[in-house]
Amino acid sequence: MKNDYELLYLIRGENDQIAFEYLFNKYERLIWKNIHLLNIENIEREDFIQEGILMLYKAIQTFDEFKNKTFTRYFELILKRHFYHMKKKIPKFVYNEYILNQQQSYYLEEDHSKFLEGCSLFEQEVFELYFIENKSAKYIQETTQCSLKQVYNAIYRLKEKYKKYVII
């Protein structure tokens, strides 16, 4: 059984596929563990596994053993950061998927007016800019002259109201 440093040397220096497969098999459980800890939906798991393999390859290429860090910790850090970044991009897709599954029909633009009846004018403006026009919270803050916290709170309230609206 070879240690990580020998495997890294074989992969970097000789492009040894067997060594890479061995290292992947060793760290596959770590990838699965991080996917499980983030509660990734079944639809997204395969993408996360593929990204985990890419991050393993990146960790192999960029690891420096003279930085007083083990390869395992280095890879885990890269993996977690990348997975968190990926997960931040998922919620809108999953949220829309949730809406479609709950209604068993496609989301139509005519539904906006009915939903927006129960929202304040500020929430209606945020809804239009954030969800319809895909503007950033920073942009909304600048155009509405409100604090960033108020914008984020409005987005959160809109999501909660919409969940209730869809269920009813």
Please explain how this structure is put together.
- With 168 residues, the protein is mainly α.
- The chain folds into two domains: 4-89, Rna Polymerase Sigma Factor, Chain: A (Orthogonal Bundle), CATH 1.10.1740; 92-167, Arc Repressor Mutant, subunit A (Orthogonal Bundle), CATH 1.10.10.
- Helix content is 78%, strand content 0%.
- The chain has nine helices and no strands.
- It has helices at 4-14, 17-37, 42-62, 71-89, 91-103, 111-116, 121-132, 137-144, 148-167.
- It is elongated, with a radius of gyration of 22 Å.
- The termini are far apart.
Q: What's the Cα radius of gyration?
A: 22 Å
| N-to-C SSE string, H for helix and E for strand | HHHHHHHHH
Structural class: mainly alpha
Estimated helix fraction: over 70%
CATH architecture of the largest domain: Orthogonal Bundle
Count of helical regions: 9
Work out the number of β strands: 0
Under CATH, the topology of the largest domain can be stated as Rna Polymerase Sigma Factor, Chain: A
The low-confidence parts are: 97-109
Task: Kindly list the characteristics that best describe this protein.
168 residues; mainly alpha; Rna Polymerase Sigma Factor, Chain: A; Arc Repressor Mutant, subunit A; 9 helices
